[in-house]
Amino acid sequence: MSPHLHDEHSHEAIAARLDSDLIHGDLGDVVLGAVDGTVTTFAIVSGIAGTGLESGVLVAFILGLSNVLADGFSMGASNYLKARSDQQLIDNYRRIEEHHIDHVPEYEREEVRQIYSRKGFSGQLLEDIVATITSDRDRWVNTMLTDEWGLQLSQISPLRSGLLTFAAFLFAGLIPLAPLLLGLYPNWTNHDIFLLSAVLTSGVFLVTGALRGVVLRVSVLRSAFETLLVGGIAAAIAYLLGVLLSGILL
Prior knowledge:
- The structure is a single chain.
- The chain contains ten helices and no strands.
- The protein is mostly helical.
- It has one domain.
- Helix 4 crosses helix 7 (137-148).
């Protein structure tokens, strides 16, 4: 066995993985907010750059900042509502199972018996498993929620999820806009400003893509460049659309 596999399966590593819902949830919210914030904001910047407007930097900054604040709040609120709905669903089914256990415990024991029978357990071992699970009310209810209803029990706070998504969207979305402030200085051309924005945004794509790889437990390098590619395509589409519309309307 390789040292890496041995370390991954140590007692401490296994315990940490089993308790890692909150960490993975936080990372997922951060990645979701950061990727969307960067893509949508830089798409606006690219679209304005494609028009070639003399006041393009100012227009891009105003529209980009409006997008970061409004769309970021919308996305954070949506993530909050989703997490809240998931939690309410779990709470509703928890009340149902608690009611069943209180009023028809033998039927609920039979459900546990059939669940673990389908997993290959039988005889005295199966009866011992049923007895162990049903000896603790919370464990019994949680077993029914996950194995009967297929619900994913989560420790993630809906408010925390929404705030993390909004904060990541805001932070990442402001990075493509930061170079636009250089438009206040006359020695910076629009071309140079948009180019610097593109470079900084590419860095954000790589970092958020790497975080995405950590969350998904896939190649960090591949995930980073995939995110860069997707973001680049979105920016290219917006830029070409800006060029096309400027040729038609201006």
